[in-house]
Write a structure and sequence with these properties.
With 526 residues, the protein is α/β, with parallel strands linked by helices. The protein is built from 15 helices and 14 strands. The protein has a 6-stranded mixed β-sheet. Strands 5-6-8-9-11-10 form a 6-stranded mixed β-sheet, with helices on both faces. Helix 2 runs antiparallel to helix 9, helix 3 (91-107) packs parallel to helix 4 (124-134) and helix 7 packs antiparallel against helix 8. The longest helix is centred in the middle third of the chain and has 24 residues, at 285-308.
Length: 526
């Protein structure tokens, strides 16, 4: 009997654990997803609580680690640089920003990432250095040559389950790869990786893909067998923020893609029951898309209501009441479209996209690194561009004088201007040590990079958004004040957007009609 009991105990030890009754409350594996970060350290703009900020993203990831059994941070698409090529005069500060991003990703415990065209902007050696700084493998199974140290696959452990991660990329711009990089067929590489993952015992397969979304979706359809595919862009350019892309199911594969520039971090929770590694939809992706639409609508209403409640608002009380009623209705609809109950049996996933905002808090180490980056750039550019002076004014054209030269004739206007945010626009840069940062200064001074105007270091008399930003350079007007053709008396409202108030420097809800009263005052258009 004793021998029989020993045998039974040995058999029981080898059996898979029994499926727990009800839904598990703790995910077996939580995956934090970032795609197409594209050199975005933090958002730039004049609207409170804008989307983005690697310090806020790091704080969010840290806050959600402990509520999962295992976690991974994965990234795909452009990571270190905003553009495929570095601007010559900004090379140093752009490389230092990439350093700050790489080190911050290391703090967030990045597990793997897959590159795009932008990541070779500093060359393959620079990509290799940044890769080492992240402490994470660069995965690109279909690339060879000058790949920056890319590998094919990575195997990690998650609560007794082996997770296989493979990366493929199409780093092509106008059909050309970065210098020295050979690009093989991504679909074939993704297919060829499956037996390697099987041999390593990886029951959970994740693919990191950096290519055009249409090409990625066709590849996912043709190569089943991956539970999760994370899609990043093949190339990105400039500051423009992309809209959100809802998650989708292709067969049994969940495909996710976050908005660029770290506007949001996706969270994919995998709940494993027994040995079942086919993950059912526990989010109700149709409902999830509806909830996301409603959430964005609620954010729009919150901002509109806050603007309408400000002193001096021109919004009628009945219109404000209607907006509040709409907000209550949207809140009720969000509650009605909550996440469904998880499947009664078998493994399942849940998905959410967390908008990255200031309210998530700040990671102290990342915040300090960002401050060090800005100080380093400031100290460097103060000297590097000390001799950069504005271009001379052509004959018959006007140069910039500065607001103090306008006050003798336009005292009332000048007094009102001093009460606006425009007059103090340069001060925050000085406080944050960003006044010599080439990414920042242009919208905070008058006549930047224009003949007879300001440069990054020559701003005397031209700090802040002064009269001549809207009314044009005034030197000839000062000499002949009665000649009305020498000054722009009533600037068009479109000037705001063409100069500084354009995406992503303002939120999508920013409206020039609402902002315009803030620049009008006694003797100044009112």
């Amino acid at each position: 009997m004793i021998a029989a009991l020993v045998c039974l105990a040995a058999v029981a030890c080898k059996r898979a654990p029994a499926t727990p009754a009800g839904a598990p409350s703790t995910p077996t594996l939580r995956i934090f997803v970032v795609t197409s970060l594209a050199g975005a350290l933090e958002p730039c703009g004049c609207v409170k609580d804008m989307l983005g900020g690697i310090d806020h993203a790091a704080a969010f990831i840290r806050s959600r680690r402990d509520s999962a059994s295992s976690t991974l941070v994965l990234a795909a698409g452009p990571t270190f640089f905003m553009d495929p090529a570095l601007k010559t005069d900004q090379r140093s500060q752009t490389l230092w920003k990439a350093d700050a991003i790489a080190a911050s990703l290391a703090d967030a415990k990045l597990a793997a990432f897959t590159p795009a065209v932008n990541d070779w902007a500093g060359g393959a050696d620079e990509l290799d250095r940044l890769r080492k700084l992240t402490g994470a493998p660069l995965l690109a199974a279909n690339l060879s040559g000058q790949t920056g140290g890319a590998e094919g696959v990575k195997i990690v452990e998650a609560q007794g389950h082996k997770v296989g991660i493979v990366g493929v990329a199409a780093p092509l711009e106008s059909g050309k790869a970065p210098a020295g990089v050979e690009v093989a067929d991504a679909r074939a590489a993704l297919e060829a990786a499956k037996p390697k993952l099987d041999a390593a015992g990886a029951g959970i397969r994740i693919a990191l893909v950096a290519m055009a979304r249409g090409d990625a979706m066709r590849m996912v359809d043709a190569v089943p067998g991956y539970q999760l595919v994370i899609v990043g862009k093949s190339v990105d350019r400039g500051e423009v923020n992309d809209a959100e892309t809802p998650p989708t199911l292709v067969g049994d594969t969940l495909v996710v893609q976050t908005p660029n520039h770290l506007q949001g971090v996706a969270v994919v929770d995998l709940f494993v029951r027994g040995q079942d590694l086919r993950f059912q939809d526990g989010s109700g992706l149709g409902r999830a898309e509806k909830r996301e639409t409603l959430r964005r609508r609620l954010e729009d209403l919150d901002r509109a209501i806050a603007e309408a409640e400000r002193p001096g608002s021109s919004v009628r009380p009945e219109d404000l009441a209607a907006r509040r009623k709409d907000r209550d209705a949207v809140k009720r609809e969000i509650e009605q479209n909550g996440a469904p109950e998880p499947p009664a049996a078998g493994s399942f996933f849940r998905y959410e996209l967390e908008p990255i905002r200031e309210g998530l808090g700040t990671d102290a180490a990342v915040s300090e690194r960002m401050k060090s980056y800005y100080k380093r750039v400031n100290d460097h550019n103060r000297n590097a561009f000390a001799d950069r002076k504005p271009a001379p004014v052509s004959a018959g054209k006007s140069g910039f004088l500065g607001a103090e030269k306008c006050v003798s004739c336009h005292g009332e206007e000048h007094k009102f201007w001093q009460s606006t945010k425009h007059s103090g626009a340069y001060g925050p840069l000085e406080i944050e040590e960003k006044q010599f940062n080439l990414d920042c200064v242009g919208c905070h001074v008058t006549g930047y990079d224009k003949p007879g105007g300001a440069t990054v270091t020559h701003v005397d008399g031209l700090k802040g958004v002064q009269c001549e930003v809207c009314h044009g350079p005034a030197s000839r007007h000062a000499e002949a004040p009665n000649d009305k053709t020498l000054i722009v008396r009533a600037p068009p409202k479109s000037l705001c957007a063409s100069e500084c108030h354009h995406p992503p420097h303002v939120g999508k809800d920013w409206n020039v009609e609402q902002a315009w009263p803030g620049v009008l005052g006694p003797g100044h258009g009112r």
